[in-house]
Design brief:
Length: 200
Amino acid sequence: MNLRAPAILIASRQHGETASIARLLTGDHGVVACYVAGGRGRQLRPVMIPGNLVEVDLRAKSDSQMPFARLELIESRGPWLTEPLPAAAITWACALTASALPERNPYPALYLALEALLGAVCQAPSARGWFPAMNSYEALLLRELGYGGERPEIAQELTGMLANFDALEGPLARYLLADKRGDVMAARHLLRERLARMLA
């Protein structure tokens, strides 16, 4: 696999002393895993944040080999990770995507939807501005992977948005995350708790 394209970094984990294994969502190639030399170094650490929009240059000698990647930052989500609610939303959206999607299957609609969702989380003045997009993204993910996922009714009030959010938890846990290692749903529960505080 050789490609250069914009991508959303959806997961990153340590590999050895200084490298990282990144999972990226691209528009035309779906999720790709890659080796990033120096990913934990001072220069690349700010780039290796889930949610960041990057330009990726992938190179692999064969289809069976994990490609090496060079990443250039296009747009950082770092400033919003200091805010509890946006940080929880970004973490959940990326963790869900990284856990649910198979590698190298293109999902252009999901790429565009995730890019729009992350942009909304960072630009909307409050959660009311991006919460409907989160509900729509979860439902779209279910539909794209063949599990139905009816479009949630548009709710104007936060209580209605939370009801939509709660209704999607069962299908997500049952169909997309049941056999995944680690408690990915913990990120969703944290987001739910922080959203509920807005009603208090």
